[in-house]
Amino acid sequence: MNYTKNEVLLDVKDVSLSYDKPILRDINLTIRNIVRPGLDQGQVVSLIGRSGVGKTQLFKILAGLIQPDTGTIMIGVEQQAVEAGQVGIVPQNYLLFNHRSIHDNLRLAMKHVTLESKEKDALIQDYAVKFDLTEHLKKYPQQLSGGQRQRVSIIQQVLTGNRFILLDEPFSGLDALMIDKVMDLLGRVATLHEWNTLVIVSHDVENSLAISDTAFILAREKDKEGATITETLDLIEMGLAWTPGIRENRQFQQVVSQIKHKI
Ligand SMILES: Nc1ncnc2c1ncn2[C@@H]1O[C@H](COP(=O)(O)OP(=O)(O)OP(=O)(O)O)[C@@H](O)[C@H]1O
Ligand SMILES: [Mg+2]
């Protein structure tokens, strides 16, 4: 596979968090800009761990929503300390306004985008066509299925213009068909711009690995309190990234089952 990993886009150093007991400790990870000739190849990274391990807390720290007890999170090519609002977030429960139509929800997401009203509407139309949402634009969130709402929520973040999008459990509660649609959407968002970077926080080993170029395993080590990154999988080097239908691949399935035993 012809690619290089260039400048750092996200650098997490020595992050720890405790409440009444340690939740996260010594979290260190780096995401670099992947460059593939002739392609706008973004980054898709997953943080995988079992329920209760501290994924949502780490998600909030990466989004600048809570401060860790120690450590730093630097984002972007300029490597600035992360602040709330700089990163697009798709939380575990969606952020759509129920009293507004899908179109108006998407318009709201663009309130800080400097475009004329007409241009914003044209952009929404564009994305709606690209991502099969045209027939839903006039509907209200409660008239959509969970998977459709999830996709609107992702597109909403793309429309804000954020290059970083953090997603907390994007596959949970969806059936296989909707999971495929969400995965397809994520794959396409990741190739809209070379700096686009998706960070998926999930306990779903199979689907997270299938969409990612890199996976970090978040787990507790024996006799130690608080979760840390116990393993990093470079799925590009393993020959398991950027391949449609990878879930059918035997080697991929073996990796999935090994990771399931480790978390
Ligand atoms: N505000 C808080 N005060 C004290 N403990 C908290 C607080 N928020 C979360 N925790 C604890 O932190 C731990 C990690 O919670 P977190 O929500 O990050 O788990 P998770 O990995 O996202 O789980 P799930 O997969 O079920 O979403 C849990 O034990 C939880 O009880
Ligand atoms: Mg969670």
UniProtKB/TrEMBL annotation:
SUPFAM superfamilies hit by this protein: P-loop containing nucleoside triphosphate hydrolases
Keywords attached to this entry: ATP-binding, Nucleotide-binding, Transport
Pfam families linked: ABC_tran (PF00005)
Domain ABC transporter: start-end pairs: 10-245
Gene Ontology molecular function terms on file: ATP binding; ATP hydrolysis activity
PROSITE patterns attached to this UniProt entry: ABC_TRANSPORTER_1, ABC_TRANSPORTER_2
PANTHER family in UniProt: BICARBONATE TRANSPORT ATP-BINDING PROTEIN CMPC (PTHR42781:SF8), SPERMIDINE/PUTRESCINE IMPORT ATP-BINDING PROTEIN POTA (PTHR42781)
Official protein name in the record: NitT/TauT family transport system ATP-binding protein
Organism annotation: Chryseolinea serpens
Lineage summary: Bacteria, Pseudomonadati, Bacteroidota, Cytophagia, Cytophagales
